[in-house]
Specification:
alpha/beta; Spore Coat Polysaccharide Biosynthesis Protein SpsA, Chain A; eight-stranded mixed beta sheet; 11 strands; 45% helix
């Protein structure tokens, strides 16, 4: 038992060292410089609900230092509470190309249904998709699009820091900073090619078309991962930009945070089962606790020290002072994450977009509750959204 625990502790320590190396490499890597004549970009933003700080987030997109771009907001209902905020943005920036699209394409993944309509309305050959609550710096478009100068780069994605106004949400934001983001940075070091985050996905329209379009991923929950997977299968690679964006978590209480975390866990399990099975190796706090419990204090102390140092490094590259201050709590997060991991194995049911769905073994969605938007995985091509921007000024 002791020998096995020592081996597991050493493996966990090796992961923490690899994560620290990935954090340092990301910090030292030189950013890709912008194009002299950058191509115009269509920003596609599916919207559902009014997130906190939503208006500030979408305004940051209208203030970009970039020569030519458009912003397309897509909603499945004109009664969506975010519509008035989008209308105000359109009125405030009449010289910007900002449009509101009423999406009518049904899909098991409603976000992808909206994207199917938005890409039909988009005018440009470079597309950028990000979540509705993402706030970005003024040079976001220049820096995020620049890696596409390399024809071998098929997709660009960005890491992010999270903020929240609730105590439970702050805990989840801390976990993103000290657990999820380091694992994202490690991924390309260990040969994972198909990484893509919903915080930013930049790609060429021609590459999207070569994958079969958004219709091919309309039935999956992890649309960002599925898009990255299909583009990299074209023989191109994903690039992790040095731009750091910010998201605002709306989870108001511990139940919501737990449900969100379990949904993530089950999504990872059905999308990348091999990677999910090995996740406990990242939970250094768990192995440190076991080392102390079984009389191996040197191993336990070494794990704790490396875990806290790695958490601090990750928080610093995200420019997240709260997570940096709280970095000594990273081992406690590992215990939480291990409990989430166990729950991730216990079923395939998830709470998502106001209803319950079942995940299939390959990551597709099957709505469970009556009235849920069950729809064909491949919506009919003639179904389209409607540009209602002219009615929003």
């Amino acid at each position: 038992m002791t020998t096995a625990l020592i081996l597991l502790a050493l493996v966990a320590l090796a992961y923490q060292c690899a994560a620290m190396a990935a954090v340092i490499a990301f910090r030292l890597r030189r950013p890709v410089t912008g194009w002299r004549n950058p191509p115009p970009i269509s920003i596609l933003k599916p919207v559902r609900g009014l997130d906190e700080d939503f208006e500030e987030a979408i305004e940051s997109h209208a203030l970009q230092d970039y020569p030519a771009y458009e912003i397309l907001f897509g909603v499945a209902s004109l009664d969506d509470p975010a519509v008035p905020a989008i209308q105000r943005l359109i009125a405030r920036y009449p010289n910007r190309s900002i449009r509101l699209i009423h999406s009518t394409t049904p899909a098991p993944n409603g976000k992808v249904g909206v994207l199917i309509d938005l890409v039909r309305e988009a005018r440009h050959g470079v597309l950028l998709v990000n979540d509705s609550d993402i706030s970005v710096p003024r040079d976001y478009l220049r820096r995020a699009a620049a890696p596409l100068r390399d024809p071998q780069v098929g997709l660009v994605t960005c890491i992010y820091r999270a903020a929240s106004s609730s105590f439970a949400g702050k805990w989840e934001a801390f976990g993103i900073a000290v657990d999820f983001i380091p694992s994202t940075l490690v991924a390309p070091l260990v040969g994972v090619r198909e990484f893509g985050l919903g915080s930013t996905l930049v790609f060429r329209r021609e590459d999207l078309d070569a994958t079969g379009g958004f219709q091919q991923i309309a039935g999956y929950i992890a649309d960002d991962y599925q898009l990255a997977r299909r583009i990299t299968q074209l023989g191109k690679r994903a690039h992790l930009s040095k731009v750091v964006v910010e998201t605002h978590l709306s989870d108001p209480d511990w139940r919501a945070v737990w449900s969100h975390q379990v949904r993530w866990a089950r999504t990872i399990r059905v999308s990348r089962g091999d990677g999910y099975a090995g996740l406990p190796v990242t939970h250094a706090g768990l192995w440190a606790l076991l080392c102390f419990a079984f009389g191996l204090p040197v191993y336990g102390a070494g794990l704790l020290a490396m875990r806290i140092a790695m958490a601090l490094g990750s928080a610093l590259i995200l420019r997240n002072p709260r997570s940096a201050i709280l970095s000594p709590l990273a081992p406690l997060w590992d215990l939480w994450a291990f409990a989430v991991w166990i729950s991730g194995w216990s079923g395939r049911k998830i709470e998502w977009r106001g209803g319950q769905s079942m995940l299939t073994s390959d990551g597709r969605l099957r709505p469970l509750l009556p009235g849920s938007p069950a729809a064909p995985t491949h919506p009919q091509p003639q179904t389209s959204g409607h540009d209602i921007s002219t009615t929003t000024h």
